[in-house]
Amino acid sequence: MQVSEQVAALERYFPGGVFSARCPSRTVLEHVTSKWGVLVLVALAGRTMRWSELRRSVEGVSEKMLAQTLQTLERDRLVHREAHPVIPPHVDYSLTPLGRDLVARLLPLLEWVGAHAEAIVAPPADQAA
Question: Is 33 within the bounds of a domain?
């Protein structure tokens, strides 16, 4: 199937059009494809992690952004949060079945990014020092 045919086939999921400003896909795409959203989802692939493990795993994320990202992904039913009634508090995060399905689709994108990132971020040959 050609790419243009694939885009046209999206009409069955988005009757108003995926490019419409009112399309609910905009909200989902914003949550799922944010820098921290993608990294948190992939960090949780195949395992359960505590908040501090996630923070160490996703280098550069602030406490505030990690908390906001986890809350958003939990609200979107992509991440499961399990609080254990112990002292000190112990909270585990894992992917829901919907989150696992999403990560399976994100991994090929990340493979592509990994294969092409250096070439894309490198300065053009005519600008190299």
Answer: yes
